[in-house]
Design brief:
The protein has 317 residues and is α+β, with helices and mostly antiparallel strands. The chain folds into two domains: 139 residues, 2-Layer Sandwich (60s Ribosomal Protein L30, Chain: A), CATH 3.30.1330.10; 152 residues, Phosphoribosyl-aminoimidazole Synthetase, Chain A, domain 2, CATH 3.90.650.10. Helices cover 33% and strands 23% of the residues. It is globular and about 65 Å long.
Length: 317
């Protein structure tokens, strides 16, 4: 075994680390100019660009004793890409700022970048720029750019009474995984893994938009909480069916038994799965699952016609 200490960010230096992070990366055709200049240039072929930004802070959004740096990189891209998907767009490029203590191993920063790039390439997108700064703990800030392909954005405020509510992707898996990690319960690897790296249903935002979705969002704060955003923006009621949601609970049942909890709480109140939920004037596209209906206002979200009193979902404060 070598007695040499690993290279740190402080020891290597900002610009030398950046050189390592960008070396050998290939940009997609949507990028006209990548890292290296004062700013990147990304094509916006129809003149409109969808933009979203989000931040992950160590200890609040991820733990390095659970996640590898590659996991953190994948999660950072996935949760931002889901916001672009929720507008009916396709992610084309990401800008990433990374803050970390100077003692951080330079190899960890490269591993983080590998995760960022791996997830971005799943979308056919690239990492086009960013920043590297010293910070007391890891902080990753991502700005995502997306292309609507000439379509109008699918907003929160378009739901109308009579619409169908449908979801695509898994809900409750991340919350179940978090509970398993937190309580030290082994097994259930798929759920534990999903908490570390979400799997948004890439491409389904465009599918929903082309199918005439009237409103859409990703499930980041929790199904009830995120549908509440649609209800308030559209001034409508949303009524979910527990019978329809039972299929969402089935994959979580064994984990619920192991922890002595009802998995419906994970499905309704858990977040960070980044599934998509949308409203449609008719039947949803193939692969989407009907879970409820839109009612006349006032704005509210119900379960079987009654108020739900479970967890309100994620709140930053």
């Amino acid at each position: 075994m070598s007695d040499e200490l690993p290279e740190t960010l402080a020891g290597v230096g900002e610009f030398a680390v950046i050189d390592r992070l960008v070396a050998g990366r290939e940009q997609p055709d949507s990028v006209a100019l990548g890292p290296g200049d004062d700013a990147a240039v990304v094509w916006a072929r129809d003149g409109a660009t969808v933009v979203s930004t989000d931040m992950l802070v160590e200890g609040s959004h991820f733990r390095l004793d659970w996640s590898t740096p590659r996991d953190v990189g994948r999660k950072a891209i996935a949760q931002n890409a889901a916001d672009i998907e929720a507008m009916g767009a396709t992610a084309t490029a990401f800008v990433v700022a990374f803050g970390a203590p100077g003692r951080t191993a330079a190899a960890q920063a490269v591993e983080l970048a590998d995760g960022l790039w791996y997830e971005a390439r799943l979308l056919g997108a690239g990492i086009v720029g960013g920043d590297l700064v010293t910070a007391p703990q890891w902080v990753i800030s991502v700005t995502a750019l997306g292309d609507l392909g000439g379509r109008d954005a699918v907003r929160l405020d378009g739901a109308r009474a009579g619409d169908t509510v449908a979801v695509v992707g898994d809900v409750g898996w991340s919350a179940a995984g978090y509970a398993l990690w937190l309580n030290g319960v082994d097994g259930f690897e798929a759920l534990r893994r999903r908490h570390l790296v979400p799997e948004p249903p890439y491409g389904q935002g465009r599918v929903a938009a082309e199918a005439g979705a009237t409103s859409m969002t990703d499930v980041s704060d929790g199904l009830m909480a995120d549908l509440g955003h649609i209800a308030r923006a559209s001034d409508v009621g949303i009524d979910l069916s527990s019978d329809s949601l039972s299929a969402e609970c089935d994959p979580l049942a064994a984990a619920g038994t192991a922890l002595g909890v009802d998995p419906s709480g994970w499905v309704l109140g858990g977040g960070e799965d980044h599934a998509l939920v949308a409203t449609f004037p008719g039947p949803p596209p193939p692969g989407w699952r009907v879970i409820g209906r839109v009612l006349d206002g006032p704005a509210r979200v119900l379960l079987n016609g009654q108020p739900w009193h479970g967890e309100a979902g994620w709140q930053s404060y």
